[in-house]
Design brief:
Largest sheet: 8 strands, parallel
Bound molecules: nickel (II) ion
Structural class: alpha/beta
Number of helices: 9
Length: 261
């Protein structure tokens, strides 16, 4: 039983075979997916996917690199969407200084506003943070993001930083990168923090694990990530799957929507 806590099946990369691909996921053990919106328009395509597929749930929000698209008017629409019965999180939101645009001030403004939205609606947040470790942490602290909790997706910082996020009430999202040869720091994070705080994700179509590195990713590749985590932790694949499945249910509060397993 695998839960992909962060996928982007609305992306163009899936336009040719989206329905065929999604249709075979459950029979391959991928029993639940959260599709994370990243832009104003992808909030709508994410909604369509969640309405079409029983096992697809939605996160609504705008990625830091797209925050220039946001205005009070379309933010209102996102607020509405977060009341949808299949919405389990606000995201992905955060700070991205790798591309470093729009301005850091604008990214911070909308990051804070979306954290407040999550707190208002009682939903967790999905955090995207790239080359912005300290600012992300400081802003989350200032906005009391621990009150809503959530996941730091595609975690790319140190184990010291991971410990701080776990202490704040956050899960650590681990995907294909952990299988890369040069992923020493992420492997250390996985080794260091208790398995109870790790969730699985693809970030597909990006970040396919070895042996498919560089190719289009999908949830079907998650067993390679599970295998790597099991090796690092020195436990069986089955134990990893069981614990991580329950972590994802806690992260997205499935008991709140009447689903306990
Ligand atoms: Ni993503």
């Amino acid at each position: 039983m695998i839960f992909d806590t962060h996928a982007h099946y609305h992306y163009e990369a899936f336009d040719g075979d989206r329905d065929n691909l999604l249709a075979v996921l459950p029979e391959n053990g991928i029993l639940r997916i959260v599709n994370a919106s990243s832009s104003v328009s992808s909030n709508e395509t994410t909604l369509q996917l969640a309405e079409q597929w029983p096992f697809v749930y939605a996160a609504f929000g705008v990625h830091p690199s797209n925050t220039a698209e946001l205005a009070e008017e379309n933010f209102k629409r996102i607020k509405e969407l977060t009341d949808h019965p299949k919405c389990v999180a606000v995201g992905e939101i955060g700070l991205d200084y790798y591309y470093d645009e729009p301005s850091r001030d604008l990214q911070k403004k909308w990051f804070a506003a979306q954290i407040q939205l999550a707190k208002e609606k009682g939903k967790p947040v999905i955090i995207h943070s790239r080359d912005a470790a300290q600012d992300t942490y400081d802003l989350m602290k200032a906005e009391h993001a621990g009150d809503c909790g959530g996941v730091v997706h595609c975690f790319s910082y140190s184990k010291e930083m991971a410990r701080l996020y776990v202490r704040m009430g956050f899960y650590i999202g681990v995907g294909g990168v952990v299988t890369f040869k040069n992923a020493r720091v992420l492997k250390e994070v996985v080794e260091d923090i208790p398995l109870e705080y790790i969730v699985l994700e693809t970030d597909c179509p990006y970040l396919a694990p070895v042996p498919f590195r560089g190719k289009r990713n999908s949830s079907l590749n998650l067993p390679f990530v599970v295998e790597q985590i099991a090796q690092i932790k020195g436990i069986t694949v089955q134990e990893v799957e069981e614990i991580i499945w329950r972590n994802a249910l806690r992260l997205y509060r499935f008991s709140d929507i009447g689903i306990d397993s």
